[in-house]
């Protein structure tokens, strides 16, 4: 990947434009041996757009650890992207990221990266202090059948052609989080408690700038703290082990998604149905 040099003044736009070139080349590389293993990771926010301020959920210290400093959402999303990228690369995926550093990137630029990649799945990563566990959002656009509507999709609503698949992808993610327990392997059963419980997941549909323009099965994954019955934060989004559980669950889900896509392709070798492309 390109070496990223932080400019002294406001030349972010130019920098972003330059970064997009290697990103799209990167995306082309794996196509020779199959398009079904490309995943796009979009670390939301960045540059001037910090997103929310996170890490305020904990009252100060937890289990003797030092006080938690607040951190910008843009840096949590980048951390999640980098960590998930490593896990996916180790599992044979070709990973395309929309950003690798603290740069400005608008919704169209993110979609542009995703749409060059012809991806098996696109994940837009967010973090929040609201709610508990992981919020998975699918575009609220009405599904549109691309086969009857022709090849070309309107840019702002390209996701409409993939909403049905995106809902399936969200369901696979939901299952992965339900099966995730601390320590990684289900059924060990020793240290039962809040930390060992499956990560709570909520599913929703909403308008998703960026994702709404993505021509791939795409979801927004918003990581929130884990809260107890009293709504107090038990595990914050800044918790490294919590992040590990999340990226491991996402990687497991994407492996399942790839398996389903392969199965679909094997049973309908000439059809355009199933997870695309
Ligand atoms: Zn966000």
Topology at a glance:
Blueprint: H1 12-28, E1 38-43, E2 53-54, E3 71-72, H2 73-90, E4 94-97, H3 107-117, E5 121-127, E6 134-139, H4 163-179, E7 201-206, E8 218-223, E9 226-227, E10 233-235, H5 240-267
Parallel strand pairs: 1-4, 1-5, 5-8, 6-7
Antiparallel strand pairs: 2-3, 6-8, 9-10
Helix pairs in contact: 1-3, 2-5, 4-5
Bound molecules: zinc ion.
The helix fraction, in percent, is 25-40%
| Largest beta sheet: strand ordering | 4-1-5-8-6-7
CATH T-level fold name: Aminopeptidase
Tertiary shape: globular
Write the CATH architecture name: 3-Layer(aba) Sandwich
The proportion of residues in beta strands is: 15-25%
Query: Structural class, please?
Result: alpha/beta
The residue ranges in which pLDDT falls below 50 over 5 or more consecutive positions are 1-35, 184-195
Average of per-residue pLDDT values: 80
Distance between the termini: 25 Å
Give the quaternary arrangement of the chains.
single chain
């Amino acid at each position: 990947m390109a070496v990223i040099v932080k400019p002294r003044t406001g030349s972010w736009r130019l920098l972003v434009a330059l970064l997009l070139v290697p990103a799209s080349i990167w995306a082309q590389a794996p196509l020779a041996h199959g398009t079904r293993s490309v995943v796009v990771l979009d670390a939301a926010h960045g540059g001037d757009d910090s997103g929310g301020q996170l890490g305020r959920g904990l009252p100060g210290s937890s289990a003797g650890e030092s006080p938690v400093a607040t951190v910008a959402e843009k840096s949590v999303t980048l951390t999640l992207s980098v960590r998930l990228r490593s896990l996916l690369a180790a599992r044979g995926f070709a990973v395309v990221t929309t950003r690798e550093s603290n740069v400005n990137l608008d919704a169209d630029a993110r979609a542009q990266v995703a749409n060059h990649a012809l991806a098996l799945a696109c994940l837009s990563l967010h973090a929040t202090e609201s709610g508990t566990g992981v919020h998975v959002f699918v575009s609220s656009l009405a599904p549109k059948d691309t086969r009857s509507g022709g090849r070309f999709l309107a840019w702002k609503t390209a996701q409409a052609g993939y909403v049905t698949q995106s809902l399936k992808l969200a369901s696979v993610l939901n299952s992965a989080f339900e099966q995730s327990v601390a320590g990684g392997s289900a059924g060990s059963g020793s240290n039962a408690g809040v930390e060992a419980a499956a990560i709570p997941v909520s599913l929703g549909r909403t308008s998703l700038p960026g994702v709404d323009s993505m021509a791939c099965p795409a979801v927004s994954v918003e990581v929130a703290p884990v809260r107890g019955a009293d709504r107090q934060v038990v595990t914050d989004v800044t918790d490294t082990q919590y992040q590990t559980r999340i990226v491991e669950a996402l990687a497991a889900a994407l492996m399942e998604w790839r398996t389903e896509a392969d199965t679909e392709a094997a049973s309908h070798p000439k059809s355009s149905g199933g997870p695309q492309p």
